Amino acid sequence: MARQPLFRQYIQQARRLARLDPRRPQQGNLRRAVSTAYYALFHFLIDQSSRLFVGSTGERESFRRVLVRAYGHSEMLSVARTFRGGTLPATITRLVGTLPVPPVLRNLAELFLNLQEQRHLADYDLAAAFLRQDVLALIDDVERAVADWATIRTEPAARFFLICLLVWEKIRNK
Amino acid sequence: MKPAEVAEAAKKLLDPKKLPLPEKPKVVDIRVRPYVDHTGEDALEVWIILAEGTTSADWNVDNIRAIRRAISDALLSAGIEEFPYTRFGTRSEIEEAGIEV
């Protein structure tokens, strides 16, 4: 049986964690579920972005495995902040023209922002508490975002988003 | 505007009676307060309080996204660019978990 991509394994793992403890969910399990859901989305995005940059056939797959190490959480967050507003800065549009950001991409950008913050709370803030249904809805949202990506993956804004995930800090103010 | 003023303006905008929200899940209240996210950016913490007895079927991705979209669009169209970090729960669940909203 073909091995599932890491992001898909993480979605399943997050859901299993969130559904443990049928009566009263343990915060430890919900925290790990939130963190795992974030990493599902993180790995999905760098998977798509790195494939766009180098492909994945033949020796390119090994190149891609090196490239994925270059992605950073804060740079990706900055890209998501920019795309969630629906308009790109003038420094970008003067070169690439107007790139309308489709609603699916805005949703994804907002989900990334939300999830990265919740992941930070889950991993580092001992005062934070999580609700099972809220966590399950986040996991469902990640799964939907992955499915929705197929509907926009060839759109210019989506392709540019994937490029920005890796090089945003180098191009944003040029 | 100062963070508290932004939160106050957001609170007025995010009146569940005025927002284009889906019929289900029923939103009974939206609580907003100033927030600083883990990167140090000013933001908003937004708790969406759902009616007691909300089912998991109503608490689905489409409905949750519609609520988030209504909140985000209302803020952006009023020029409020602070990101609304949204969380959902019923009042009893929130209280049981010891979360202050």
Report on the structure:
The complex is a heterodimer of chains A (174) and B (101). Chain A has eight helices and no strands. Chain A has helices spanning 6-19, 27-54, 60-67, 73-84, 90-96, 103-124, 132-152, 156-171. In chain A, helix 2 packs across helix 8 (156-171) and helix 4 packs across helix 8. The model of chain A has no long low-confidence stretch (mean pLDDT 95). With 101 residues, chain B is α+β, with helices and mostly antiparallel strands. Chain B contains three helices and three strands. Chain B has helices at 3-13, 61-77, 91-96; strands at 27-36, 42-50, 83-90. In chain B, strands 1-2-3 form a three-stranded mixed sheet. In chain B, strand 2, helix 2 and strand 3 (83-90) form a beta-alpha-beta unit. The radius of gyration of chain B is 13 Å and the shape is globular. The mean pLDDT of chain B is 96.
Number of helices of chain B: 3
What's the pLDDT, averaged over the residues of chain B? 96
Gyration radius of chain A, rounded? 17 Å
Oligomer: heterodimer
Q: What does the overall shape of chain B look like?
A: globular
| Count of alpha/pi helices of chain A | 8
Q: What's the number of extended β-strand segments of chain A?
A: 0
Give average pLDDT of chain A, whole number.
95
Write down the secondary-structure element order of chain A: HHHHHHHH
Largest sheet of chain A: none
Sheet with the most strands: spatial strand order of chain B: 1-2-3
The SSE string of chain B, one letter per element, is: HEEHEH
- Intertermini distance of chain A: 47 Å
